[in-house]
Design a protein that fits this description.
Elements lengths: L4 H12 L5 E10 L13 H14 L8 E5 L3 H18 L5 E10 L6 E4 L2 E4 H11 L3 E7 L13 E2 L14 E7 L9 E2 L4 E2 H13 L7 E3 H16 L10 E7 L5 E4 L6 E3 L6 E6 L4 E6 L6 E3 L3 E9 L2 E9 L4 E3 L6 E2 L2 H4 L14 E10 L9 E10 L4 E12 L3 E18 L2 E18 L4 E20 L2 E16 L2 E6 L2 E9 L1
Parallel strand pairs: 1-2, 1-3, 3-6, 6-8, 14-20
Antiparallel strand pairs: 4-5, 7-12, 8-12, 9-10, 11-13, 14-17, 15-16, 15-18, 18-19, 19-21, 22-23, 22-30, 23-24, 24-25, 25-26, 26-27, 27-28, 28-29, 28-30
Helix pairs in contact: 2-5, 5-6
Length: about 500
């Protein structure tokens, strides 16, 4: 009997010890590009919802079956998703010592009183009531929309970066956190350059590692908010519509830190070199920006295995390249494997984010009209093919042919050019100009037989523009003014053959 006492004592201690709490996470993520009234459609609200959803599954501990992602859906479907999420919370709470962390996210239009889902509206008061009714131990709501700060007005929300939410999964904590991308009277902005809302872009960047200021491989809600707040204010300070101030309201009891993402979950990290002024990372197949980093931010970005495009700015110059990241790898990127883009592209914002560094040439195939040597013939139709460096900077080759019929003869010109150009990017349009030298021949056939020809040499100035159409294809416009020397009636003479060309470019 005495021998059993230690065993019985240990068993009693085990049974009397408090059970460890099990934490479940679920999320309802909503994005809708259209709103009610006459407001123009947004470009990236639904894309933003997809970005945040991927982060929550990859890094945030939300199982795919516990994520409700609604992109471009109406009020009925959103309400059904909210009801299903509430049922799931109640089912989980049926087990003892179970805690639930619920995240709600919305990106889209708002009129300051409701979230807009096409022509339908989800009132702020209904959203707050639903959050309370779910019974989740911790409820986090993030709203990226114009005038979203009105969601906080009935709750005593505040502007500013001071944000001390402290909560951990293993401690008994409960309450609610509301985060909005703008104040109650402010516009929330989108950026074509990064393909998303500015607040969501920086919040997601923070969750992927940019906000890991402690360097412990875990990003807390406080770290992500503070990073998104400072970057959003900085980026919107110089805009004409005014600075955008994210806002917050939190009402939590408990201690610890709410860890929102863990950078070890995807089993792959991209580590950027030191010394950049700005860094963008995009998922290569989609060319979709997933993270932006600035000096002082952490230099590691949590990713899934695959191909990524990296663009770093240093000394006002852009360095870009593509890298592969394998499962279980911390892929360190070096400056040596990044190619420096032309300074014209380095200074541009709003143009193509990532140039194909392994394919720096573009081929232009164009049709148009060109001046003729014969007096009175006027512009004649022709074609022009050019091989140029992407962006317009550097050396290039071109060839063109033009042919037209006069009253009793046909004139055909064949010209080849070697030239150098200088380019720059203005928003989505790339413009370039340059000079060329070359030569060829002009042939005139006289009916019914006979004629003559002359060799030609000279130079030309040209200017052009390209507008992306999608993928590697762009619309190209060019104007050229060649000045050629040739023999006419046995005399050396000069002729100007201006040309205008339009066609397509392919980035090879």
């Amino acid at each position: 009997m005495n021998a059993l006492r230690p065993t019985l004592l240990a068993l009693l201690l085990l049974l009397s010890a408090p059970a460890l709490a099990e934490t479940w996470r679920l999320a309802v993520v909503v994005g809708n590009n259209t709103g009610s009234g006459e407001r123009p459609s947004l470009h990236f609200a639904e894309t933003d919802a997809g970005k945040l959803a991927r982060v929550l599954v990859e890094l945030g501990g939300v199982a795919p079956e516990d994520l409700f992602l609604l992109q471009g859906r109406g009020l009925g479907e959103v309400r059904r998703a909210l009801a299903r999420a509430e049922q799931r919370v109640r089912r989980w709470h049926g087990a003892p010592s179970t805690r639930v962390i619920l995240t709600f996210y919305f990106s889209g239009h708002s009129d300051g009183e409701a979230l807009e889902l096409g022509g339908e509206r989800l009132r702020f008061s209904d959203l707050r009531a639903w959050l309370d009714d779910t019974g989740a131990d911790v409820r986090v709501a993030l709203v990226d929309s114009c005038r979203s700060g009105a969601l906080l007005t009935a709750r005593g929300g505040a502007l500013g970066p001071a944000f001390q939410v402290r909560l951990t999964d293993e401690l008994a904590s409960s309450g609610q956190v509301l985060l909005t991308s703008s104040a109650a009277d402010e516009v929330a902005l989108e950026s074509r350059e990064v393909g998303g809302g500015i607040f969501t872009h920086h919040f997601v960047s923070g969750l992927r590692g940019a906000a890991d200021s402690s360097g412990d491989g875990r990003v807390t809600l406080a770290e992500a908010y503070q990073y998104a707040f400072s970057r959003t204010v900085t980026q919107t300070t110089s805009t004409f519509v005014g600075t955008q101030h994210p806002a917050y309201d939190y009402r939590l009891s408990g201690r610890g830190e709410l860890v929102f993402t863990e950078l070890s979950r995807p089993d792959a990290l991209l580590e950027l070199p030191d010394g950049f002024e700005r860094a963008l990372v995009a998922q290569a197949p989609r060319d979709q920006v997933i993270a932006e980093l600035v000096p002082g931010a952490a230099r590691r970005v949590a990713v899934t295995p695959g191909a990524y495009a990296v663009r770093l700015v240093r000394g006002g110059r852009v360095h870009a390249g593509r890298v592969e990241v394998r499962a279980g790898q911390t892929r360190a990127v070096t400056w040596e494997e990044l190619a420096a883009l032309p300074r014209s592209a380095s200074a541009a914002r709003g143009g193509p984010l990532f140039e194909e560094q392994d394919s720096p040439w573009t081929v232009r195939v164009m049709g148009g009209v060109q001046g003729a040597v014969a007096r009175g013939l006027g512009p004649v139709p022709g074609a022009r093919v050019a091989l140029r460096r992407t962006g317009g900077d550097g050396w290039g080759l071109a060839a063109q042919v033009a042919s037209g019929r006069g009253e009793s003869f046909r004139e055909t010109s064949l010209l080849g050019w070697l030239g150098h150009g200088w380019g720059m990017v203005l928003g989505p349009v790339s413009v370039a100009a340059g000079v060329e030298v070359g030569g060829g021949a002009v042939v005139q056939r006289v009916q019914p037989e006979g004629g003559g020809w002359s060799g030609v040499v000279g130079g030309a100035g040209w200017a052009g523009a390209t507008l992306p159409l999608g993928g590697p294809v762009s619309l190209a416009l060019e104007a050229q003014l060649p000045l050629l020397l040739l023999r006419r009636d046995g005399q050396l003479t000069a002729a100007a053959l201006p040309g205008t060309w339009v066609g397509l470019t392919w980035r090879r």
